[in-house]
Amino acid sequence: MENQTRDMNSGDLNARERMRRTGIDEPMIVRLVHAFYGKVRTDELLGPVFNRKVEDWDEHLRTLVAFWSSIAMGTDGYNGRPLPAHMGLGIEAEHFTRWLGLFRDTAADVCPPEAAAFFIGRAETIARSFQMGLDFHRSAMAKGALPAG
Ligand code: HEM
Questions:
Q1: Of 27, 45, 100, 106, which shows the fewest CB atoms inside 10 Å?
Q2: Sites in the chain below the pLDDT cut of 50
Q3: Closest residue CA from atom 36 of ligand 1
């Protein structure tokens, strides 16, 4: 199991092979995204951050389904820039801990184990890179190297 999970997370397996192994398809991604953000919206720590920013939740859910479809199935429906979308939201380490906790629980509830392992692995990697990107942006701003906001 360990070796296979690592294989699935690396970029060398093509999307079709990954979908065959994990059973990932669009309906599963829709179930995962809708269940996850259903929890996020009512979460006492994350809810206020999202509800302050997201005006059209249907559009936000469509964007996140396209995002995860591009990662898991190699589709080209998502062409946003996720890191800048998280700047200026006042996100701290505790928000990432809660976000990942809710995401792990939801993926385990909604997806078969191999698909859940794939989504959780990618979410952890992306969350780590977001945290580094936000920390870098914050310290560069503190040094006056970047414009505020
Ligand atoms: C601390 C945890 C997080 C918080 C509080 C958070 C909050 C948000 C908010 C409020 C938006 C909407 C921004 C807007 O409409 O301008 C957003 C967009 C988005 N988030 Fe997060 N997020 C978090 C972590 C993550 C992680 C770990 C991922 C990926 C694994 C992610 C993926 C995205 C994507 C793809 C978008 C859409 C960006 C676009 O418009 O193209 N977020 N997030």
A1: 27
A2: 1-9
A3: 82
Q: 7 C-alpha vs ligand 1 centroid, how far in Å? A: 26
Which candidate, 14, 8, 4, 45, places its Cα nearest to that of 119?
A: 8
pTM confidence score: 0.90
Handedness of CA 83, 17, 19, 114 (dihedral sign): negative
Question: How far lies 81's CA from each of 41, 52, 129, in Å?
Answer: 22, 20, 13
Domain 15-142, architecture per CATH: Orthogonal Bundle (1.10)
In the numeric block, the tokens 């990432």 are attached to 96
Residue of 76, 86, 96, 122 with the most ligand 1 atoms within 8 Å of its CB, for mutation: 86
**Contact 31/122 with Cβ under 8 angstroms?**
no
1 CA → ligand 1 middle, Å: 30
**Which residue puts its alpha carbon closest to atom 25 of ligand 1?**
127
